């Protein structure tokens, strides 16, 4: 292990650029975009994402799956660098694997030692580990700020939270960049073939500025970046004479990002049949009670779903809260969703009595119910 650590340190030291990507939402997407920017600057780049599934991204921008023999461990970063960084590698972009601040700090100071830290955004998520206020979460994320004379780039839109990061940078001797100061047009964003977010692209433009990479080259390369396979997508299917529009948002785990995505999909997706039903699934996990509370606030106060479906943990709390808010709620049988997801979908059409259902999967991923439903829908042939 000692030799492995020393080999890792020497390899990291020889690199021209080391980027550590942190934040609450969209770290994998940001990591992919930053790697694209570095490729535009002719850096031979290795990137690694954790996201919904761990992957290495090579110089061609292709994914190489990481096969784990056990649970995720933050020392995986050391192993990946030792196995995949070679004398031709100029730069690495590594998504932060840790949630707890002490492990984030360890990754930065003992493993990555970044020149550039990306803190994409600050949201209410992982509150059990990172803090119960946005200010506390900002403090936690600052654990990955780089050493003196490094750079921190953020696209956080809350000025108070940006100021916390800026003050942390000042104390550490790190240069602070607000990516939102970099202009990206709506017409450019429409060129993406997948759903991408302007603040993420602005992070890439800021990175290009720091490294002296021409903006037009960086933006052209970001358009070519391949999205994460399990990223939030919208697919349409036929069920006999009925239509299902499915939006997999299980991996969007904070309330604010979820609300923004819901708004975006409502605006972009066409499901104009007269009796279209808007339905959400609340997929609950026993180890994420704070997340359940957040999403119940969103569903109770701001959403207008025709039917709210829940499975997994906290069923009674969800039913009580939504019924109190006069929301229509249905508790799905966990075994049914796991063993017969097709019948579960048919139940939704029966309960809404609609020919078209716009269905959102919300709150959590990696439960048997959600994974069974996703696997079933992935086997279906989508329509345009």
Short description:
The chain has 384 residues and is of the alpha/beta class. It contains 16 helices and 14 strands. Helix 1 (2-14) packs across helix 3, helix 6 (134-141) runs parallel beside helix 7 and helix 9 (198-211) crosses helix 10 (215-223).
Helices and strands, with pairings:
Blueprint (H helix, E strand, L loop, with lengths): L1 H13 L2 E6 L4 H14 L4 E5 L5 E3 L5 E3 L10 H9 L6 E5 L5 H12 L3 E4 L7 H4 L3 H8 L9 E4 L4 H14 L2 E4 L7 H4 L8 H14 L3 H9 L10 E6 L2 E7 L6 H14 L8 E8 L4 H13 L5 E6 L2 H10 L4 E3 L2 H6 L1 H12 L3 E7 L5 H12 L5
Parallel strand pairs: 1-5, 1-6, 2-5, 6-7, 7-8, 10-14, 11-12, 11-14, 12-13
Antiparallel strand pairs: 2-3, 3-4, 9-10
Q: How many β-strand stretches?
A: 14
What is the count of distinct domains? 2
Determine the fraction of residues in helical runs and give it as a percent range: 40-55%
Strand order across the biggest sheet?
4-3-2-5-1-6-7-8
CATH superfamily of the largest domain: Mur-like, catalytic domain
Main beta sheet strand tally, sense and closure:
8 strands, mixed
* Uncertain residue segments: none
End-to-end Cα distance? 52 Å
Radius of gyration: 22 Å
Mean pLDDT, all residues: 90
Percent of residues in β-strands: 15-25%
Fold and architecture overview:
By secondary structure, the chain is an alpha/beta fold. The protein folds into two domains: 2-223, UDP-N-acetylmuramoyl-L-alanine:D-glutamate ligase (3-Layer(aba) Sandwich); 234-379, Alpha-Beta Complex (Protein-Tyrosine Phosphatase, Chain A), CATH 3.90.190. Helices cover 44% and strands 18% of the residues. The strands form two sheets. Strands 4-3-2-5-1-6-7-8 form an eight-stranded mixed sheet, with helices on both faces. A six-stranded mixed sheet has the order 9-10-14-11-12-13, with helices on both faces. Strand 12, helix 13 (315-324) and strand 13 form a beta-alpha-beta unit. Helix 2 (27-40) packs parallel to helix 9 (198-211), helix 2 (27-40) packs across helix 10 (215-223) and helix 9 crosses helix 10 (215-223). The longest helix has 14 residues, at 27-40.
